[in-house]
Amino acid sequence: MEKKRNTFSGSLGFVLAAAGSAVGLGNIWRFPYLAAKDGGGLFLVIYLILALTFGYTLLVTEVSIGRKTKQSPLTAYKKLNKKWGFLGIIASLVPVIIFPYYITIGGWVVKYFLAFLTGKGTEAAQDGYFTGFITSDIEPVILMLIFLAVTAFIVFRGVNKGIESFSKIIMPLLILLVIGIAIFSITIKKTGDDGIVRTGVEGLKLYLIPNLDGLTVKSFFTVLLDAMGQLFFSLSVAMGIMIAYGSYVRDDAALNKSVGQIEIFDTVVAFLAGVMIIPAVYVFSGTEGMAQGPSLMFVSLPKVFAQMGKVGNVIGCLFFAMVLFAAFTSAVSVMEAIVASIMDEFHTSRAKAGIIELIVAIVVGTIVCLGYNKLYFEVKLPNGSIAQILDIMDYISNNIMMPIVAIGTCILIGWISKPQTVIEEVQKNGEKFSRKGMYVVMVKFITPILLFILFLKSIGLLTFI
After folding, report:
1. CA-to-CA distance for 462 and 457, rounded, in angstroms?
2. In terms of Cα–Cα distance, which of 242, 262, 254, 261 is closest to 425?
3. Cα–Cα distance measured from residue 392 to residue 306, given in angstroms and rounded to the nearest whole number
4. pLDDT over threshold 70, residue 465
5. How confident is the model at residue 3 (pLDDT cuts 50, 70, 90)?
6. 2 — pLDDT class (breaks 50, 70, 90)
7. Which of 55, 264, 265, 375 could form a disulfide linkage to 370, CB 3.0–4.6 angstroms apart?
8. Which residue spans within 377-416 are E strands per DSSP?
C-alpha cells in the first residue's frame, strides 16, 4: 500500500502527462472532421474562444480539486463535501465504461500501424478491409490485448517511472510527427481525372478561412455546440482523469501556468491534426472526402496514402505511429483514473488495483470486440443514431454521464463550496490567477448553462439546433 502519495517530479512531467491524456484519438480524426463540416476557420475561431473560457474553467477546476484533496475522483468529491460523494461515483464510472472500448479502438490503430509498417498499406486501402477486420473473430481481440498490455505496463510502473517517464518520451515524438506530416501534407499536389490540379495549400485555405456561406442563427449554434462538445471531450474533463492527475501535482507547482500550457498543447495538436489531414484528403478526394466523419481515419486516409505511391506507405506508417502514441497516452490516463480510485477508496496497493482493472478490461474489452460479429445487434439511441455495443457504451459515458459530472462539478464549486475553493488553490504559492474574474462568472453561470444545452442536444431533446 502506498503510504505517501506519489507526485510528478515537476510541472513539466504533469503538463506532458495531462497533455498526453488530452491529446487522444478525438483530436486526430474528430477535430479535422468537425472543422471541415463547420466552415473551417469559423469552427477554429469559436473553438479557440471556448478553449480560453469554457475549457479552461473545467480544466482548472478539476486539477485544483485533485491537488487540494490529494484524492482520486471517487474520493475527492466527498472530501470536498460529504453530500456530494455521489458525483465521485459517477465520475469514476465514466473511465470504467470508456476504457474497454478505447483499448478496442487502440487495437484497430495497432492493426493499421502494422499494415503500413510491413508494406501492406495498399491492402489497408481496399474497400471492405476495415469491416472485414473488425468483424473477424480473433484478430481484434488479440490486438486489443496487445494494446492493453502496453498500457497496463506503464500504469503498473507508477506515476514517476511509468506515466511521467513515458509522457516525456512519447509527447515530444508525437509533436515532431504531427509537425512533419502537417508540412508534408501542405506541399503535396495532384492532377485529378478532371484535369484540375489540387494542392495542399488550397486544402489548407479551406481549413483556415472561415466559410460563412449560408450561415444562419441555427447553423451558428450548431458550430458552437460542435466546438464545445469537441473541447469538452478532448480536454479529458468530467471523467476523473484531471482530478487524479491533479492529485499528483506538488503543492509548490505553478498550477495556473501548467493548466495554460495544457490548453496550448491540446489546441496546437488538434489544429495541426487538421493541417495533416484536410489538405491531403482534399488533394486526393476533393471536398467530398473531407466529410467522412468517423470513417475518416480507418477508411478514407488509407485510400489517400495509397494514392501517394511509394511514399504513401512511409507517410501512412508515420501517421499511424503518431495516432498510436496519442492513443497510448490517453489510454494510460483513463486506466490511471480507475486504478487511483480503487487505491484511494479501498486503501490497496497499485498492483492489486491494477490487476482488478486489468481483469475487468479484458472481459469487457473482449465483449466489445465481439460486438461486431458473434454479439452483434443494433438499437436506436435517443439521439436517433443506430448503435451496437461500442456505440452504446460511448453514448452512455460521453453523452449522459460526462455532462452530468461537469454540470455537478460547476454547481458544487460555483454555489456550494464556492469559487474561492479553486481560487485559493491556484493562488497557494502566490501565483497570479490571471483569469480569476472570468473564472467566477464561467463556473457559476455560463459553463453550467452551456453544458446543460449540450446535454439536451446530446440526448436528443434539443432537436431544433
Report:
1. 4
2. 254
3. 33
4. no
5. low
6. very low
7. 375
8. 379-380, 386-387
pLDDT in tens, 380-390: 998 788 999 99
The amino acid at 460: G
N residues, the chain: 465
Report helix, strand or coil for 198.
Answer: strand
Rounded to 10 deg, the angle between the 310-346 and 350-370 helix axes is 130
Domain ranges of the chain: 11-458
Non-local (6+) Cβ contacts of 388 within 8 A are 371, 372, 376, 377, 378, 379
pLDDT band at residue 461, thresholds of 50, 70 and 90?
confident
465 Cβ contact partners less than 8 Å away, ≥ 6 residues apart: 218, 221, 222, 225, 457
- Give the helix/strand (H/E) hosting 380: strand 379-380
Distance CA 220, CA 259 (A): 29
Does residue 140 have a pLDDT over 70? yes
For residue range 317-369, what is the model confidence (pLDDT) as tens digits?
999 999 999 999 999 999 999 999 999 999 999 999 999 999 999 999 999 99
Q: Which residue has the cell 459530472?
A: 405
Q: How far is CA 211 from the centre of its chain?
A: 26
Burial class (CB within 10 angstroms; exposed 0-12, middle 13-18, buried 19+) of 110: buried
Element (H, E) at 451: helix 447-458
Cell of 117: 509498417
Q: For 34-43, what is each residue's pLDDT tens digit? A: 888 888 889 9
String of DSSP letters for 42-107: HHHHHHHHHIIIIIHHHHHHHHHHHHHHT--HHHHHHHH-GGGHHHHHHHHHHHHHHHHHHHHHHH
Taking all residues of the chain, what is their mean pLDDT, rounded to a whole number? 93
Around Cβ 192, how many Cβ atoms within 10 Å?
12
Question: From its phi and psi, is residue 5 left (phi > 0), alpha (psi between -120 and 50) or beta?
Answer: beta
Q: Is the dihedral of CA 53, 46, 209, 264 positive or negative?
A: positive
- The model's pTM is 0.95
Query: Does the domain formed by 11-458 have CATH 1.10.1420.10?
Result: no
CA 95 vs. chain centroid, Å, equals: 12
CA distance linking residue 362 with residue 348, whole number of Å: 21
pLDDT value for 289: 64
Query: What pLDDT shows up at residue 212?
Result: 84
User: Residue 290: is its pLDDT beyond 70?
Assistant: no
Q: Does residue 190 sit in helix, strand or coil? A: strand
Helical pair 402-411 and 56-69, crossing angle rounded to 10 deg: 70
